[in-house]
Design a protein that fits this description.
disordered C terminus, seven-stranded mixed beta sheet, five-stranded antiparallel beta sheet, alpha/beta, 397 residues, globular
Length: 397
């Protein structure tokens, strides 16, 4: 299952290659593998956990980006995506006194929804997006989107504001990327960056944060160190919605910082993550092997753990998610169609794991309000250090 490696890296034989849910339990119809190896490395200079380079992963990612990656957290004009957009827009507006007339570039703009909100506020906007999502933007939102990757010769202008929401973690060399961003800013310009906050996962040993799409796994400290290494002054804060870190980065002379104590602490956390992660497979096995069917709410957060848990893929599992567009679809390697909340109410599983650190309290309350009486295990319970035997009896409330 695991390959023992030096403390600076940790190799996992195979993790699901997930970039969006599919109509079948396999990526093969799209010319992509269902699994690929994964190596987690520790960058001692930046104090950053990052995925080791792998040419097979790079090839697969290039193809899936061209098809359009659709991992949860995208900003949209409906559902949870609208909440992500509103929260990030509020962060930008808190720091920008006026957007009217400002030249704005969004890197990895998806459908262009956030750009449309900025355009409505008078900004002069353009986006760049490698996937097919951006192709509909001109008609749907009336914003200009260039198909491709940043940096590109198709964009030579300088900008007052550059946005990269959920992008930096996808970049192999985040320091060079931020240097390219800095070179595209006008004097006095600002970059607004959002990345997933991996701190809760790294601290608890939750390997669900490991995705082949993500090359870096940031907490507030490592994000700050990467920005400083790129020569940018930064202010960082947690998002108001979801589990992201927001960063405001500006050009300026940055004094060389001594991060030795910080990176030593990060190294200790990295090695602790490995040790804790090795224990969670037994927890998942105990959860699955209880009597009756085991349900997982927000299953995308558990497919890594399921992949390294013997027998999980053929177990008596059910997957549930609130995202209506995912209903009836599959995760690669798992023959369990995703069900919605109405299916859970109609036929509850014998027990349920709520696999989200950001929203487990809200989901627990919703289940209780619906009168569904089943044992609940929340994300916090699962990674709290409970004995394996306790999991199936935990109500999580």
């Amino acid at each position: 299952m695991y390959v023992d490696t030096p403390l600076s890296s940790w190799s996992i034989e195979a993790l699901p290659f997930f970039y969006r849910c599919q109509k079948t339990p396999s990526n093969q119809d799209y010319g992509l593998p269902d699994q690929l190896p994964f190596t987690l490395e520790f960058d001692a200079k930046l104090g950053l956990a990052r995925q080791g380079k792998n040419v097979d992963v790079e090839r697969a990612l290039e193809l899936c980006y061209q098809q359009g990656s659709e991992i949860s957290g995208m900003m949209e004009d409906n559902g949870i995506g609208q909440h992500y957009a509103a929260d990030f827009l509020a962060y930008i507006e808190k720091n920008e006194l006026a957007l009217s007339g400002r030249r704005v570039l969004e890197i990895g703009c998806g459908t262009g929804y956030l750009l449309s909100l900025l355009q409505a506020r008078g900004a002069d906007v353009v986006g760049i997006e490698p996937g097919g999502q951006g192709g509909e933007s001109g008609n749907r939102y009336g914003v200009r989107v260039i198909k491709g990757f940043f940096p590109t010769t198709a964009i030579t202008d300088k900008f007052d504001v550059i946005i990269a929401y959920g992008v930096l973690e996808h970049i192999i060399d985040p320091v060079q990327f931020l240097k390219d961003v800095a070179n595209s800013l006008r004097p006095g310009g600002t970059a607004y960056i959002a990345v997933p906050n991996c701190a809760p996962y790294l601290e608890s040993g939750d390997i669900s944060c490991l995705l082949h799409e993500h090359w870096s796994y940031f907490n507030q400290g490592s994000l700050r160190r990467v920005c400083v290494a790129a020569g940018m002054e930064v202010s960082i804060e947690p998002s108001g919605f979801g589990g992201s870190i927001y960063c405001r980065a500006t050009l300026g002379a940055v004094a060389e910082a001594d991060f030795r104590l910080e990176t030593e602490s990060a190294a200790s956390e990295f090695h602790g993550f490995q040790a804790k992660a090795r224990q969670t497979s037994a927890r998942m096995s105990a959860f699955i092997q209880g009597a009756g069917d085991a349900g997982i709410y927000v299953p995308g957060r558990m497919i890594n753990l399921l992949a390294i848990t013997p027998g999980a893929a053929s177990g008596n599992l059910r997957f549930f998610d609130d995202n209506a567009s995912m209903k009836g679809l599959y995760y690669p390697g798992f023959d369990f169609p995703i069900e919605d909340f109405s299916a859970l109410k109609k036929a509850p599983p014998a027990r349920l794991l709520i696999a989200t650190s950001s929203f487990h309290a809200q989901v627990s309350e919703r289940i209780s309000a619906a009168g569904v009486d089943i044992p609940l295990t929340t994300w916090a319970d699962f990674f709290s250090g409970l004995d394996v035997a306790e999991l199936n009896g935990s109500d999580g409330c």
